[in-house]
Every structure is written in structure tokens, then in C-alpha cells.
Amino acid sequence: MHFNSFALCLGLAGLAQAHMEMISPAPFKSKDNPHAGSDVDYSMTAPLEASGGNFPCKGYHSLFGTAQGASVADWDAGSQQTMKITGGANHGGGSCQASLSFDKGKSWQVIHSYIGNCPAAGTSSFDFKVPSDAPSGEAIFAWSWFNQIGNREMYMNCAAVTIKGGSKRASAMSNRPAMFVANVGNGCTTEESSDLEFPDPGPDVSNDSQKTAGPKGTCAKAGSGGGSGSGDGDGAAPSAAPSAPADNGNNGGNNGAAPSAPAGGNDGSYNPGNDGGSGAAPSTPAAPPAPTKPASDTPDVYVPPSSSATDSGPNSQTSSPGGVFVTAPQPAESTAAPSAPSAPADDGAGSSTLLTMTKPAPAAPTSVVTPEPAPSAPTPPAAPSAPDTGAGAGAGGSGTEEKAGSACTEEGQWNCIGGSKYQRCASGAWSVVQSMAAGTTCSGSKTQAMAFGFGRKLAFRFRRA
């Protein structure tokens, strides 16, 4: 029995891996940001919420202009710069964009698009040129990513930067397209197993893809992103006024006038002046293919900004199937019953990795969540009973939501709220409330181990002894 329990621990640890995150320039609330202090987001690799509730920047763009959101890099207009992405689960790569916002995150202009192999497994660098007509002053730089394999998601990290020697013209960067937005409840989705072909990638593009596909639904059309960096609205406007994802409390008005949007939805771009989109929700993609064998090493990969057509075949990089991704610190050897390892006592280390568990492929496609009209939510299958954690875990979480940033005493403690949301005690303070991934639930409240149910499997969070 002892051997079986230990083998299960090793199996779970072997599946653990991290998603991807930008580390340079250092994003808001990143552990690499010297201005973050103790308010660090240890789930920086998590995607944006499917509802779009924390778009853009996971809501952290609200720190812009504060001491915690101070600039981390000085860039000259017209200069060559590099962003660095790292992590262990690049989900087949995909397509990324580098964008700038000069109005505190209300609108975004693309400065470089990367189609295919973005990001690569391990640590990779991506070059781009700061537009020579970029306005001088502080701005928000964003890395956005649409993964090739796995759940249809959008990832986004943002950092404060300072542009020097730039343009003072009202039409600065008016020929740049708006950042592409999808998979956040705005009526636009991306296809699985293909690299996203951006409808309007802009003038600076790197293409390293073997297979591309355009987005589905009511998405952005080719055309200038418009709007001036100074926020006076004199730049060229998009071809249609996009609808925003669900209102997250940070929405504002547009800087420049735009034509009325066509009936039935939005164009895939983010518009803070519109509170929701409409149109029928498209079906989700088919189940992903089996993953390739992980590489034994994940070396740094350098990706130049120019297009390359010399590759003879697909990238032999680590890929992961679609599934539910939850954080799980690597457990120590357990003496619990063989059905599941017990949670060891907390030693304050708090180190964790990311556990990727594959849920069974659905028998038929389901609908993605859109703000309007609201489809009927499918009833998730009953999750197996979670092991006794000693904290009263049941069929659903009974924890009470704690105010983000309020003090807590049990470092690493989890708080399951209503079975659909959770937060954690980190660095002596409660984190922001996070939504569970689609089709999963949590159980228990304010405990050191929390069970997640999906399909007929359970994933467990543990504190390492």
C-alpha cells in the first residue's frame, strides 16, 4: 500500500509543468518586477478568464501610474528591443503579438505579429522594433498569445515602459492595427491544432508556421487599428466598432470615433466603450491530438523578427494536450491509503509547479460562453469524493470570499468559494479570487489541500513537507 501511494505521487509529479509567461520586460505583479513588492501573482502563467472579465492584462493595467506599476524599461522610438518568454508548456506554440497602449489599456496597437512557434518551449526571445512614430511618454507594453494545442484561450502579460524621443503628432501610429482579441467571450474563437492567422497582423510580421488557420465567429477585419497615442482620437478608426468582453469595472470610452458595428456581434478587437457582444456562440474545436514525447531538455530558443521559410518540418518541441491545468506543489513521500496521497504538513516553502490533467473528450461539441445570448450551461458530471483533508471538504466549497490583500495567517492555505472560485494565502495576504477552469469544481474551504473534480478524475493540490 505504501508503494502504490508513493507511485501515485510520482505519477502526479511527472505530469507537473508550467504554462508560459513574459519575464522581460517584467510584467505588473510579476516576481521578476522590482516594483511589485509583496503583491506578486504566482499564477502569472494562467490565461485570461473565458468571460473576458479580467481583460486586458488580467486587470493589472490598473496599476499603471502607481509606484507598484512604475516603468521597468526605457525604449527609444525606432530602436530594436526584445521580449523574453519562458515556461514549460507551450501547447504546440501558436501565434503571438506585441502591442502598445498609450491610454492606460483602453486601446492597443500592434507593433509586431509572430505566426507559429510562439512561444517555443523553454525560454525564447522575440525581437521587435519600437515604431519611430510612437508617442513619447509612459506606455503599457503587452504580449498576447493564442496557443495551438489545448483549450481555446488567450494569454496576456503587460508591463509599463517609457518611450523616449518619439512623435508628438496627433496621428502617431495611426497605421497600426488593433490588437487581435479572441476566446474571451467576445464572439470570436481560434481553431485548435493550427497557428492563428491574424486577420490584420500589421506591417511587421514573423511567420514560422507550418499550418495556419483564421479565427471563427465575428472577429476583427483587416484594417487600421486607428486612434492616436495622445488619445485625441484623430487616427484612422477600425472598420467596425468592436464589442468588449464582459465588463470588468475598468472599461472606459473610446478615444476616436468609429463607425457603427454590424448587427450580430463584434469584430474581435477590444472596445472599452461597449459592454457586450451578440451573436450565436460557435462550437468548440474537436479533441486535440495526442501529445508528442517531451524533450529531455528545454534550451533557450532565439526567434528573429524576420519571416523564415527555410524550416523543413514542424518544430520538435514539447506539446501538451488540451485539458484542465491546476497548480500542484510536488508532494513528498506519503504513507496514506493507496487511493490518494495525503497532504503533508506545511513547512512554509510554498514551492509549486503546474499539473496538467487531461479530461475525457466530450461526446459532442459544446458552446463557448458568450455574454449574449447566454447559452444554457451544461451540467458537469459528478466528481468523485475527495479525500478527507480535515477541513470539512464536501461536494462544493463553503468558504467565504476574503478581500484580496487582506491579512491571512496560514501560508499556502486554499479557500474554495462556492465550488467555482478559489483564492490562496500567499506572502501573508489573500490573493485575488480566481475562477475554476471550465468543467471543473473545487471542494473544501480554507485548507492546505483542495480537491478539484472534473469528469471521472480528481486532481489534488498539496503542500510539500
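Second entry:
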Amino acid sequence: MPTRRRPPSGPTSNSQRRPSTVSRPAEATVEPLRAESAPSTGPHTHVPASAAPVLTVEGLDVTIGRTVRAVRDVSFSLARGEAVGLVGESGSGKSLTCRSVLGVLPPGCRVSDGRITFSPGTDTAADGATDADVATLPASESAELTALSRKEWNAIRGRRIGAVFQDPASYLNPSLTVGGQLSEQLRVGRGLSRSEAYARAVELFAAVGLHRPAELYHQYPHELSGGMLQRVLIAIAVSCEPELLIADEATTALDVVIQAEILELLQSLRKEQGLALLLVTHDLAVVAESCDRVVVMYAGEIVEDGPTAEVLAAPAHPYTEALLRVASIGDWGRRELDIIPGRPPETGADLPGCRFADRCAYVTKECTAGPVALRTLDGGRRARCLRPAGPSGETPSAAAADPGLPVPQGAAL
């Protein structure tokens, strides 16, 4: 009869697997990217609950075609200066969620329900923009992103909301120099002259850790490595000093050393610019190093949400626990390598109960009897589980697996 137990107490960092410090080239020492820096923040830094949210997602549904609900009732928020990790397996709905925020859903996908509210709080992103652009910028208080026209989106995306994706080469024009592409963003988004844009582009390339930025300005994408291209894309994404930066699997295709450098760069930019960071990844180790809070998704739903340090030390949902075993993070790394048995449900499949039930080692008949709500736990954490793990690391007494339901093969007992 399985019960949920925690590994022995100890640090939850993953420093043995990833470098924690990276040397910076001399050119990176430049003036801050924003004149007034926000208070210093970093991994596991507590952001006060009273901090005004920059982004609020409420009851988001994304539908593929006419009837396939790929994302279901997703709700979360980001405060200014906060880093939130959106984690899950491929097909969990995390990328569709972030692309909904950016207004760039793939063809055939649409936001079918819910609200996405962007509340920058200032109009600094409009400085230097043309009169026509400023006219399309929404009021600083808030903007309902799902209701924006294409013209209004063009005034926000790239200026107030920046984005970095997994394959930078596919987002850069191969026939233009990388410096020319950054300068164009500065001229359109900030209203700079040609000479001002060139000078600022060189500063930005240095700020993101690129050597010899004046020479690199004239190079083409095919002349740069993957890590250098990712830095170029980050420079473009933050060039207009956005309030929100979305990084969708931005380090996935990079080796572990370059990953560490890019993550450190994102943290540095977050401190200097005071921007909110939504980090979309399948790698919990990345979240452990970089995020204040983690939102775990499975089969289109949020299954757990809470402060990163607390969730990694004592996961409340069986799926989060399984991810930690597979990732071998912290004390979970002291155990043998594990797998999550079974397969996720088909995208959009309507199931009678918990969507993780057929892969869960703690499943009971009650888990499959009806929908499971996302419940608020002590400390403001949330978990979509009828019997979330308690502080002792064991489920409540009623959480013993029902003997009438088989334990999934390969589950840890």
C-alpha cells in the first residue's frame, strides 16, 4: 500500500549538476539597461503578496479546432520583478499558455475562455515611439490581451512584452546582420536615429555578454554559435525595456555550460530592469536555479503552484513528486533513476476524474469519480489533488491507495 514519503532532509539545489557562477567578458561592463533599477531579486527571493501583478491569467482555455480543449482553466499571476517557472512534459499546455499571453497561437488554436490582463503600471515603454504608436498603446493601468487588435498588439509585443524562444536561428533573418536587426527594433520601438540605434545596439550586445560587440554587429546569424544567437535574441527582446519577458524553452538546445550562462544573464537583466520573467521549461533543475515560484502543468491543467523552494522540498502533488524523481534534483537524486509509468492522456481528452490518475501510485476510486479542483493549501500553495501530501511527507490516513485499483507498474512504493 503506497504512502507518500519525502527523501531525507537536505539542500534542494542542483549545483553539482550545473555551474553556479560564470565569468563575464570585459565588454559586459556597461551602464544599466534601465536608469532606475528595481530592488534586487533572485532565485527563491520572496516577492510580497501585495506586489502589483504585471500579468494575470484567469480561467484560460485554449481550444484546438472546434472542440479540443488543450488548456483548461489555467490561472496564475506574475508580480513586477518576479520569476515564475511554468513546468511540464511535452504536451502539457505550457507553450500554448505562454503563446496565448503573447497573442501568437498556432493556426487552428484560439483562446476560447478566460482573461489575460497585462498591467505594466508605467508608460516608459512608449518613450521615443512615434505618435502613431503611442496612440495605440493601452492605458498604463491594464490591457485585456485577448481583446486587442493587431495594431494594438504591435504596440505591446516587442516593446512592453519581450519573448525569447528555443531556436533563435528561426527567429532571425539570415540575410540581415544581427546588428542591423537589433537596430531596426530600436528605431521602430524606441524612435532612435540610425546612429543612436547603432550605439545602443553595441551597448546591448556587450550587456548580454557578447565579445567584441562592434565587430559582431556586422555579422550574420550563420556566423554565430547557438549560444551567441540566443544572446542576440535576448538583446532584441529587452531592447525596449519591457515589463514582462517570456522565455519559452530558451535554454533547451544549449549545452549545460551555455545554459548556466544564459540563466545567469536572465537573472541579471531581471535585477537591472525590474522585469517579470515567465520561464517555460520541462526542466525542473532550471526552475530550481532561476525562479521564485513554480507552476506545474499536466495534460492542460495546473496541478501545483507555489514557492519554488517549498515545492521542490515537499511537493504536494504526485506528478510534481514524480518529476523530481525523474530529474534527480537535490535529495531525490540520492535515489535510483526513475520513470513516470504510463502515458499522458490524449490532448483534449475528457476524463471523469483526475487526469493523472492512471499514472499515480496513490490513486483511489474517489480520484476517478469526478473532476478534481485546484485547492488552496497552507501558505498559499495550490494543488489539484484530493489528498495532497502533508508536512510530514505522507498523505493523510485516508490517502492509502485503494486496494481495488492497481498500482501503475514501475511506480515507486
